[in-house]
Amino acid sequence: MVIFLIKATSEASFSVSVGILAQLVRYLLYLNVDIDRLLWSAGVDPAILTSPDERITVEKYILIEDKAAHETNDPCFGLHMGQFVEVGNWSILGYMMMNCKTLAEAFEKYAKYSSIIGNLISGDVHMSSDTVTIFLTAPEHAPIISRHCYEGYFSSIICLARNLSGRNVNPIEVGFVFSEPKSIDEYKNVFGPSVLFGQNQNYIIMDIKVGNIPVLLPNENLLQYFENYAKEFLSEVETIHHVTYKVKKFILSHMDNEKLTIAITAKDLSISVRTLQVHLKSEGTEFRKLLKELREQLAKKYLRENYTVEDITYLIGFSDPCTFRKAFKKWVGLTPKEYRQTPINISA
Fold this sequence. Notes:
alpha+beta; H-NOX domain; Arc Repressor Mutant, subunit A; six-stranded mixed sheet; two-stranded antiparallel sheet; 17 helices; 10 strands
């Protein structure tokens, strides 16, 4: 038995990745709903959809989901929204799952890294010989969660399993805590005939043979790459300081401005330069250091992706290629050309 026991997180606030919101929006677009109006009505700027790794509070997400269900008059909104999931909606986690050898391994990665897409719930995996069971729970101090969330979650998992394997994966049984709705026909269309309500837990049970189904195009090297990326991502999300995060975000969105200064940044954050300096110092950094680190990271990335030195110069805010070359040599100890020719694991 493979059991995914979704345990409560101890964090005081809960958030959901914008990738999950984008999945919801994809279903609304299919229904020709005015997305901008709906998001603004929930106090969310539609522009956030262009930043899939951003996060919104769980409260905001639930409000959007409930408004969408009401506007579309869809009593099975969560079930239907789940059918519009794509690997990219689950960000790094989705790409990890796509490169696993089997669905069981993909489920294990999901359980281990689920906080990438939302920190309201987390996973714990146990294996046995006959079934795969997934339980969904939420902590007592979590916001009130509608049934659409649980339905969407299970629907997404089954849809992803089908997409990753190319097989018609079906659960043995699905159980929900909430009471039985007037019609369960749509539940049976999504999950199969055995759907129960009024249960003690929200769960989904699959045959162990499902776990053994191979993923269509596994790639061990890419899996390792995305898993390393996931670890770094979660480490930064969990430890990053509040002001530092805001400054990094602003620098990245204005990286091509060669005149970018702490004064410009402070003005955007609606604080004085002195206050910003104090905050950054208390968080162990400073503006010049952040700007340098981000420029170096992007320069390395662009060189590996075969951008020209001229393009990189202007993308990261240098006045001319000569200045960029000198700065890069100072950072790395190699010229851009030498760095591009080194193996990936050297001076990475």
